[in-house]
Specification:
Layout (H helix, E strand, L loop, with lengths): L1 H28 L1 H27 L5 H26 L7 H24 L8
Length: 127
């Protein structure tokens, strides 16, 4: 199924980006860099992967149910993101640049690999 393939590709891409970012930012900024990468990967990769997982879970339901669940999940993720960012904004345990770059890279890479997983999957068409 294309959605499962997309989710698998996205998860693998997130793991690769996370490990590479941990190596780079851990070497450059130490422990704050590592924490920035962990938070950034959770936010950036989690945001995209949860949406794909919600679509996969509701794929057997009606389109309106799928859209309601995806929209509700998106709104919940935005609220949680705002809360998390408000809580950690004045904390100094993480490097903000490491977090920002990891969020951007994770979102772009995970979304790109999910799209690649869907468009390159072989699906039987019956007309």
């Amino acid at each position: 199924m294309p959605l499962q393939r997309a989710l698998r590709f996205g998860t693998i891409a997130l793991a690769i980006i996370t490990v590479a970012s941990l190596a780079i930012w851990g070497g450059v900024r130490g422990l704050p860099g590592i924490w920035g990468v962990v938070v950034g990967a959770a936010i950036g990769g989690g945001f995209v992967l949860i949406t794909a997982a919600l679509v996969l879970v509701t794929s057997k339901s009606s389109p309106s149910t799928t859209m309601a669940v995806v929209l509700g999940g998106w709104l919940l993720k935005v609220v949680l993101l705002i809360i998390v960012l408000m809580i950690i904004k004045d904390m100094e345990f993480y490097d903000t640049m490491a977090m920002f770059i990891t969020i951007v890279l994770a979102m772009i890479t995970v979304l790109g690999t999910e799209v690649w997983g869907i468009i390159t999957s072989r699906v039987t068409y019956i007309s």
